[in-house]
Amino acid sequence: MLVYAVNYRSCEPVPDPAPLLADPRVAGYLVGWPRAGDIGVIGERASCESSSEEVGACWLRYRCATSPGFGYLSSTVPEVTLAVAIDARGNGYGRALLRELTSAAADAGIAALSLNVERSNTPARALYLSEGWRTVCTDDDSDTLVRHLHRPRRGATNR
After folding, report:
1. What is the four-CA torsion angle of 8, 45, 16, 90, rounded to 10 degrees?
2. Distances (CA, A) of 33 to 40, 68, 138
3. What is the pTM of this model?
4. Domain ranges of the chain
5. pLDDT over 90, % of the chain
6. Which CATH code fits 2-148?
């Protein structure tokens, strides 16, 4: 799924993901999974009566200043990665995965999340902005977005 996230422009799977994963900034999103604090969700769709296939994943990982990712803000703000398989895009899996991860992060007491998205990735940008993410940093071709989370108050009741 990390390869799908990095290679979002292609309509074909990457034949050899090794060059992508050789980049430490990319590999850092996944190497050693799971570490303490890592949270992830997997999206599946039924493919037969008794089986399912993985169509996407969304995960967060804390990074540090000496090994930052593309959406690094600080060591206290985990970075999010979202990927959906090519043949499953445009069917709501990304939104469902992002919401599930955001909920799990809030339940874990995480105050904010970050990610990086290229401006040319119009569908992903639209998704993130519609889900409450806001741009906090920009460079030549991408933006770093943040989403502040609100934890439910313990003992709160709806009135």
Report:
1. -20
2. 10, 16, 29
3. 0.84
4. 2-148
5. 60
6. 3.40.630.30
